[in-house]
């Protein structure tokens, strides 16, 4: 398996080189040259597998034996040994039509742990085996940063700098990142929003001299391995539900921001998983909803909502979808992305929009609806949703019908977002791991939304002896 860029100007690479490259050197995103297809018979055989074994089966299509099987197995075992549930991502059945896939049983209580625990192991492996210098640079709206820091803290040969929007993440998210005082961790709190943070890191990854000089590596979903690791739980969820009930096709409802999680589902579908609709749930930052409904991809004004991790206006992985939507024509992708940069929008015609709508539905959830759904599920099912998960459920309720089975993703634990939960007078007990953060000192450097200031901080950090 080789990997290529959505923009077509990078020579095809192997798996490890693709991981190290992160953002493609031509500014695009790396994708597999060909997507392997899993037969229905193989899928049936996979029903009996544990999460870890399923992960190994799926990754074996993609790693080209660049990592010996026993080494990969060891990494996978270590990655998921830190999860509080032996199933890693257990399915909770709410009704025979609605299942919730709980993705928050990892160390930082959000779905990002599923991929980032593995990525931490993988980077550590590559650093030791190949003597690679791993200087991670990431942007976060709260969860990726916390999970990435947990994934690599204290690991030899790795340094990590994470940019988060100052005071625009939840208190628990901030504490999870900034109470870490390890020498290999730098937290920059940027006076701006997530799009600003992501914009700066994309610019720095795009500066090939800077990227090469500092050995910059990515942990965001711009890195294909993040996407692939997230694909595993689509298969896992389907297989768990298929064991319980007769299933032909399944829908997934996905709280969305950067489009990484949805794209993982799109990849799973292309690999042969019988997915009917991918339901995109956004909050009031609804660029994706507007695209699915109108065919216009154009960012709007940034809004702070009850689901801050989804406060994203420019959905990074949209470019990966665009590549397939445009018939795998990288020249066209480059033209569309150039247009987006210059004119601020991409517009598709009515015929093309029908193709999009055949695969996706979308619902933008307003703050009031989000809280209403949290209250409703607590009262009716005694299940406490976090505000991101609530967006997914609200979208399911909008599109669900009696003939279709849906798995809705629980992307975070409610304790991470108590600010919203408190608004509807629900008192929750924090898990001990979160409770103990409340009394710890914090370490972060507040910077202006200025590339120069951020670069100065990075130079000092990566050059430190
Ligand atoms: C809790 C939570 N839910 C949903 C999302 C959206 O996922 P994606 O960015 O992959 O669309 C995020 C952030 O990415 C998140 O942290
Ligand atoms: N919501 C994310 C934003 C970054 O997304 P990623 O999937 O590209 O890492 C976060 O929590 O940081």
From TrEMBL:
It holds the Pfam family PALP. The keyword Lyase applies. Catalyzes the gamma-elimination of phosphate from L-phosphohomoserine and the beta-addition of water to produce L-threonine. Keywords: Amino-acid biosynthesis, Lyase, Pyridoxal phosphate, Threonine biosynthesis. Residues 101-348 form the Tryptophan synthase beta chain-like PALP domain. This is Threonine synthase. CDD domains: Thr-synth_2. Pathway: Amino-acid biosynthesis; L-threonine biosynthesis; L-threonine from L-aspartate: step 5/5. It comes from Paenibacillus baimaensis. InterPro entries: Ser/Thr_deHydtase_PyrdxlP-BS, Thr_synth_N, Thr_synth_N_sf, Thr_synthase-like, Threonine_Synthase, TrpB-like_PALP, TrpB-like_PALP_sf. One of its GO terms (molecular function) is threonine synthase activity. PANTHER family: THREONINE SYNTHASE FAMILY MEMBER (PTHR42690), THREONINE SYNTHASE-LIKE 2 (PTHR42690:SF1). It is an enzyme of class 4 (lyase). Residues 2-80 form the Threonine synthase N-terminal domain. Its cofactor is pyridoxal 5'-phosphate. Belongs to the threonine synthase family. It comes from the Bacteria. It catalyses: O-phospho-L-homoserine + H2O = L-threonine + phosphate. Its EC number is 4.2.3.1.
């Amino acid at each position: 398996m080789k990997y290529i860029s959505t923009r077509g100007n990078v020579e095809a690479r192997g798996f490890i080189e693709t991981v190290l490259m992160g953002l493609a050197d031509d500014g695009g995103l790396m994708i597999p040259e060909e997507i392997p297809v899993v037969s229905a018979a193989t899928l049936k055989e996979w029903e009996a597998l544990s999460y870890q074994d399923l992960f190994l089966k799926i990754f074996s299509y993609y790693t080209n034996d660049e990592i010996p099987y026993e080494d990969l197995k060891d990494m996978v075992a270590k990655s998921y040994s830190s999860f509080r549930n032996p199933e890693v991502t257990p399915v909770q059945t709410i009704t025979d039509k609605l299942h919730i896939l709980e993705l928050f049983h990892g160390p930082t209580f959000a779905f990002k742990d599923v991929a980032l625990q593995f990525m931490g192991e993988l980077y550590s492996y590559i650093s030791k085996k190949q003597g690679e210098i791993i200087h991670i640079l990431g942007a976060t709206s709260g969860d990726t940063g916390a999970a990435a820091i947990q994934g690599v803290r204290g690991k030899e040969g790795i340094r990590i700098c994470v940019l988060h929007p100052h005071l625009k993440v939840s208190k628990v998210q901030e504490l999870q990142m900034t109470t870490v005082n390890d020498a290999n961790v730098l937290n920059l709190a940027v006076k701006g929003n997530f799009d600003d943070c992501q914009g700066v890191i994309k610019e720095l990854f795009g500066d090939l001299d800077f990227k090469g000089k500092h050995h910059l590596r990515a942990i965001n979903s711009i890195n294909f391995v993040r996407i692939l690791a997230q694909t595993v739980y689509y298969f896992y969820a389907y297989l768990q539900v298929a064991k319980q009930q007769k299933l032909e096709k399944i829908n997934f409802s996905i709280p969305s921001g950067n489009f990484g999680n949805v794209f993982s589902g799109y990849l799973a579908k292309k690999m042969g998983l019988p997915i009917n609709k991918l339901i995109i749930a956004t909050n009031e930052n609804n660029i994706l909803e507007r695209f699915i409904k109108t065919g216009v991809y154009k960012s709007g004004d940034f809004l702070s909502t009850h689901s801050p991790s989804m406060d994203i206006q420019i959905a990074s992985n949209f470019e990966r979808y665009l590549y397939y939507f445009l018939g795998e024509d990288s020249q066209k992708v480059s033209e569309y992305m150039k247009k987006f940069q210059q004119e601020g929008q991409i517009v598709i015609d009515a015929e093309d929009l029908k193709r999009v709508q055949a695969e996706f539905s979308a619902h933008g959830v307003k703050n009031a609806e989000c809280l209403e759904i949290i209250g409703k599920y607590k009262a009716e099912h005694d299940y406490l949703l976090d505000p991101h998960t609530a967006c997914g459920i609200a979208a399911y309720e909008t599109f669900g019908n009696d003939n279709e089975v849906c798995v809705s993703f629980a992307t975070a634990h409610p304790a991470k977002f108590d600010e919203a939960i408190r608004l509807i007078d629900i008192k929750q007990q924090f898990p001990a791991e979160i409770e103990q953060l409340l009394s710890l000192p914090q370490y972060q450097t507040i910077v202006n939304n200025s590339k120069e200031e951020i670069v100065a901080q990075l130079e000092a950090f990566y050059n430190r002896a």
